[in-house]
């Protein structure tokens, strides 16, 4: 009996290792591409060649920053992305917005990939409590691990039944852009202490300078002593 075939786009750390092992256990894993985040790379050339020359059932994008072009999505039976945010926050910067606006719950969304990111049918949503001590980086890190659990569940169902139905959830807004994140995390000299504290919690990440103070044409990035 033919095993369904798949391609996996994933990250370079241990979560990517786990995703590769599980996909290889359940499917004929035809290609793996791994990426740092962020990355300027696109999908590998061999992916386009593969989907045009062979029948590929699934593309799984797990913790991958790469946008898969429409020309490839149209050649695959079911392309699925595992988005590290709930349906309330499509696009980028989900943890920042959730913390800034005082959300009490966060989550992971598995959805069909379409040409526009984070607009396809939602297949699974997993949610969990946001802790009072969470920062942008800690919330994202916990979400990445929850994403692996959702990934396991979705792939197991596909391997068992060959299909998966929409969950009934709907995206709650248009996908957020890099510009919208920058605007959220840019402070002015007249902002209140409360807004500054919110922006620090929502934007603090040892790998990226945020939030930023805009003053007289200059931009000053926040740096916590623990991040230096």
From TrEMBL:
It comes from Paractinoplanes rishiriensis. Residues 44-154 form the Formyl transferase N-terminal domain. Pfam families: Formyl_trans_N. This is Formyl transferase N-terminal domain-containing protein. SUPFAM superfamilies: Formyltransferase (SSF53328).
